[in-house]
Structure formats: structure tokens, C-alpha cells
Amino acid sequence: MLIRLRGQASLGPQVKPINLADHCPQVGQKCTISGWGTVTSPRENFPDTLNCAEVEIFPLKKCKDVYPGEVTDGMICAGDSNGADSCQGDSGGPLVCDGVLQGITSWGSDPCGRPERPGIYTNICRYLDWIKKTIGSRG
To answer: What residues does the Peptidase S1 domain cover (predicted)?
Structure first.
């Protein structure tokens, strides 16, 4: 689903457009996640400030092994050996690699922040043609 705004967004220092990925992220690539989700899983404690963390792109097979039958090729597997992770309330947030939107926070383990259970992100490059077609058809 894409959301169409009624008018243009007010751009400024804290609101800027980002380029969509035209290629898929590489295993081992470092990326940044950000969001307003809880910072104390499993207890929910939502922050007053935007949080971000660095994660690494893992082979998709790692997440397919951890979450059998739940992970598809349209997803990205990313995490951190220290447990950096997206959490409840972060869904819909960005996964940014080298200044490009590569993914959208989707789901992960509960509780979150478990190094052996990476986060799952929608893989933008797998849906880029659909995104462009949908934007183009809506004028």
C-alpha cells in the first residue's frame, strides 16, 4: 500500500525526501534504522526522541532458518551482534543504507533486541517497479 498525501509535504531540516533503492542491499552492508518504537522490550516504554541504530544486512537464509516459513524473497534480514534492533512501534520506519531507502521496518522477534533473531524489513528493490507503476498511474 502506498499513501497519497492531499498536498505537498512541508520540507525542512527535519523533513526531507529520500531516494528509493534501485538495487538490492548487499550482505554485510551497514545500514541505519530509526523509529519511535519502544526501547525496553518486552515492557513498552516509548521514547520522547527519535532513536536510531546501525544494523548489518544478513543473508536471507539466516532469517529463513530462524523464522521457518515466514520469510520471503521480498524481505531483508538485518540485525546486530549486540542486539540493535527495531521494536514494537517502529514498523513503517526506514532502513537506510548509504543514504538510500533500502527497506521498511516490518516485523521481528518478541521480545526484540535478540542478536540471534534479526529484524525483518520489506525489500524496496523487490517492489520498485510496482511503486513506480502505482505512482505513475495515480498522476
So the answer is: 1-136
CATH number of the domain within which 58 lies = 2.40.10.10
Count of structural domains within the chain? 1
The neighbour count for residue 74, using CB atoms within 10 Å, is 13
**Separation CA 77–CA 89 (nearest Å):** 18
DSSP 67-109: STTT--TTEEEEE-TT-----TT-TT-EEEETTEEEEEEEE--
Q: Which residues pair with 122 in a beta bridge?
A: 75, 104
**Per-residue confidence in pLDDT tens, the chain, 139 aa:** 788 889 989 999 988 999 999 899 999 999 999 999 888 777 778 888 999 999 999 999 999 999 999 999 999 999 999 988 999 999 999 999 999 999 999 999 988 899 999 999 999 999 999 999 998 876 5
Phi, psi of 61 (to 5 degrees): -60, -35
